[in-house]
Design brief:
three-stranded parallel β-sheet; binds ligand L434P2JQ; globular
Length: 289
């Protein structure tokens, strides 16, 4: 119920944005920040993140992404989604720092609800989610990948993935942490989260953050072949199994969703945290100069 209500709010927000949907022979639809190549006959869609320059998860991006995902969820012909970046090199730079810096509490609350919604929708999706990680994927970008059923990363040592929040002076929320612990185990998570480590593909594979590392030009073909394997499993048994594995963790957030929003708002509003974000943003700028 809570999910459906939040979804309606996002849909309303989406229509307020007034984006015109572009339909190309019913096989492709796009809003400004997400491109969907939908093969209805095959039951597979490729969702490409395209929020330049670095696919940060801004409020507008989250709204558009959730609307696109809902369209696919509502069409029973779609059984699988491949998530990838339209800009190879960066899968996603994670949460948009500008949504968490210098804004007011109401904005922080609205943003955090949308971030929660993204995680819940992806984590609990009945569809098969395969992540084709064709670039760097820190923090919220890594989280998106962690919600998927299978992760394939491009074998490029310049790319990294992980939860680096502590390096920014912020803390990975408990549900980021839970998702990570369930993926890599407690000790690895404890170590990596405290240090805010980002891992290149080979290490990410060793730790189980990703399931496969393949040459960069094979990420998409690999994702398609993995999807074919997963599609061969009957939906009802796979979905019931997925739900059995994931429901408790998702319920843990659902039951304390409002408290989690309040925690986020008071944490991110602190002067010390705003100062840390300021320093980090300056560092990002200086890196360029
Ligand atoms: C007590 C418990 C309470 C619990 C409360 C919980 C609180 C939790 C709070 C938050 C959790 C947050 C999770 C996150 O996801 S935080 C975001 C983490 N992301 C990063 O650290 C990535 C930062 N970016 C980079 O490292 C690089 O940009 C990279 C992705 C590697 C791409 O590099 P490159 O291609 O060289 O691009 P640039 O660095 O030049 O960036 C281009 C412009 O984009 C801006 N940028 C980059 N990342 C972000 C971002 N995440 N959000 C907003 N903007 C971003 C960057 O500043 C450049 O801007 P400009 O061109 O204007 O200079």
């Amino acid at each position: 119920m809570a999910l459906a209500a939040a979804g309606r709010v996002l849909l309303q927000a989406g229509s307020r944005l007034g984006r015109r949907e572009v339909v190309d022979g019913a096989r492709r639809f796009a809003n400004k920040r997400v491109e969907v190549e939908a093969d209805e006959a095959a039951g597979i869609a490729v969702m490409k993140l395209k929020n330049p320059p670095v696919n940060s998860l801004s409020l507008e991006f989250l709204t558009e992404f959730l609307i696109s995902l809902e369209k696919l969820e509502n069409n029973k012909n779609f059984r699988g989604v491949i998530l990838t970046s339209e800009r190879p090199g960066v899968f996603s730079a994670g949460l948009d720092l500008m949504e968490m810096y210098g804004r007011n509490p109401a904005h922080y609350a609205e943003y955090w609800r949308a971030v929660q919604e993204l995680w819940l929708r992806l984590y609990l999706s009945n569809m098969i989610l395969v992540c084709a990680i064709n670039g760097t994927s820190p923090a919220g970008g890594c989280l998106m990948a962690l919600t998927c059923d299978h992760r394939i990363m491009a074998d490029n040592p310049k790319y990294t993935i992980g939860l680096n929040e502590s390096q920014l002076g912020i803390v990975a929320p408990f549900w980021f942490k839970d998702n990570f612990v369930n993926t890599v185990g407690y000790r690895t998570a404890e170590h990596a989260l405290q240090l805010g480590l980002l891992f290149p593909p080979a290490e990410a594979l060793k730790l189980g953050i990703v399931d496969e590392v393949v040459p960069e030009d094979q990420v998409h073909s690999k994702a398609q072949s993995v999807m074919a394997q997963w599609m061969a499993i009957p939906d009802h048994s796979r979905q019931l199994t997925k739900n059995m594995m994931r429901k408790a963790m998702a319920d843990n957030l659902i039951k304390q969703r409002e408290a989690d929003i309040q925690n986020f708002v008071s944490f991110i509003s602190r002067d010390s945290i705003q100062k840390s974000l300021h320093t980090y943003l300056e560092k990002l700028k200086q890196k360029k100069g």
